[in-house]
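USER: Write out one fold?

ASSISTANT:
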Amino acid sequence: MEHVIQFAIAAGILVVQYFISKRAHVFAGAALPVIYIGLFIYGYVTDFFVERSTGNILAASIGGTVLLLSAWIKGRESLAKQRKRELNKMIVKDL
């Protein structure tokens, strides 16, 4: 049951990341990946992780960062597509 809750939290964070990335400010979506990396560095330095296997910590930090960055990229692409559709609607109305 513990893993289900952890997965739900991770999925929720990815959804929040996607919606933050769809906003006008580009750097708002970049905040979560930077915070994520910072927390992993802090946890590694302060011995927060119970299993201090560098390979596991590195895999989790890189994997999570890749997922957060991919959600950021998808959100930015969605925003660009939405803006392009709105611009095309305005152009059609002007003709």
